[in-house]
Specification:
The protein has about 210 residues and is an alpha/beta fold. It contains five helices and nine strands, in the order βαβααββαβαββββ. The protein is globular, with a radius of gyration of 17 Å. The protein starts with a strand and ends in a 9-residue tail after the last strand. It comes from Demequina lignilytica.
């Protein structure tokens, strides 16, 4: 089986909505779209690039895919050309139960049976990445359909927005896969894996 990695930028209070631009995802009246931009961090950039270089397929939510489809095919040269070409070349699977514009080369739709289809994709690809796509991520987390959850946690509190683990999330115990890494801006990289265990309780005794 291949590896499915989830890559998310989030705030200290766990909000992962619209880090990239004001109009990325204003749903729910979210007022802080583009909150990540003033907090650029070299450590995060290097880690993101390493993940992009190794991936062999993308699984994206509908909103993220539509934003990328309108941007990356036109940026396969220039400073971001390596990223644009990589995203263009690998297979892209779009999680959507409705119609979606699949004109970006290498794109296809999944979603009729999300759990079964994602399991099949993990068998087909060695290094499948989900980037952003918070609604899709919440579904994958609820079904333990991931191997690595990378969170880049920024020193900002947003107070509202879509969270990685919202109220009602499936209780689970995760394993920290490697020591945390802190960047110069104060962003912290955390990498977790599933354990298959729920949440145990007990009593703290001195």
């Amino acid at each position: 089986m291949g590896r499915l990695s989830i890559d998310l930028f989030c705030s200290l209070d766990g909000v992962a909505q619209a880090p990239g631009a004001p109009d990325e995802d204003p749903s729910g009246g979210f007022p802080f779209g583009g909150w990540q931009a003033p907090l650029g961090d070299a450590m995060v950039g290097e880690s993101v690039m390493a993940g992009i270089e190794s991936l062999d397929a993308l699984l994206l939510g509908r909103v993220t895919y539509d934003i990328w489809r309108a941007y990356w095919p036109f940026h396969e040269s220039g400073p971001a050309g390596a990223i644009g070409r990589k995203f263009g070349d690998v297979p892209k699977y779009v999680a959507s139960r409705g119609d979606v514009d699949l004109s970006w080369r290498g794109s296809s739709r999944v979603g009729a049976d999300m759990v079964a289809e994602v399991r099949e994709l993990r068998e087909r690809h060695a290094d499948l990445h989900v980037i952003g796509s918070i609604d899709l991520v919440q579904t994958l987390l609820a079904h333990d359909l991931f191997d690595v959850l990378t969170l880049w946690v920024y020193p900002v509190v947003l107070g509202q927005g879509k969270k990685v683990f919202p109220d009602g999330a499936t209780p689970a115990t995760l394993a920290l896969l490697e020591p945390p890494v802190m960047g110069p801006s104060g962003a912290v990289q955390l990498r977790y894996g599933p354990t298959g265990r729920g949440v145990a309780t007990g009593t703290m005794e001195g």
